[in-house]
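On clarity, I found the account of how folds are encoded harder to follow than it need be. Since the whole study asks how a given chain folds, the encoding of that fold should be made plain. For illustration, here is how one protein appears when written out as sequence plus structure tokens:
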Amino acid sequence: MWLPVNTRRLSFEEESFTRFSVDMVRQYMQEEELRAQHQNSLLKLREVALKEKTKAELAWIEQQKQRIRKKGADESYPQLKKRQRGLIRRLQQERVRVVVKNLLLSFH
């Protein structure tokens, strides 16, 4: 079937635009995937840093508790126990935040 020149040109332009649109969507999807991978890596690093910080703070509290036991100053001991529980609670809360963020990223 023979088409007029204008119709062929329009068809070619439509095809070019469609190809361009598909390429743009593909590029956008690749960029989003890369962004999600970077975000996931950052969240993992944040969790590792949080664990290390909490571990160091708990070790410091243990040292303080030993020092207090040696001195016999038991009035400071409950404060350290309270601080220790707070650190553990904060670590658990932050872990939940990281898990939720990872879940949200996986849905994108």
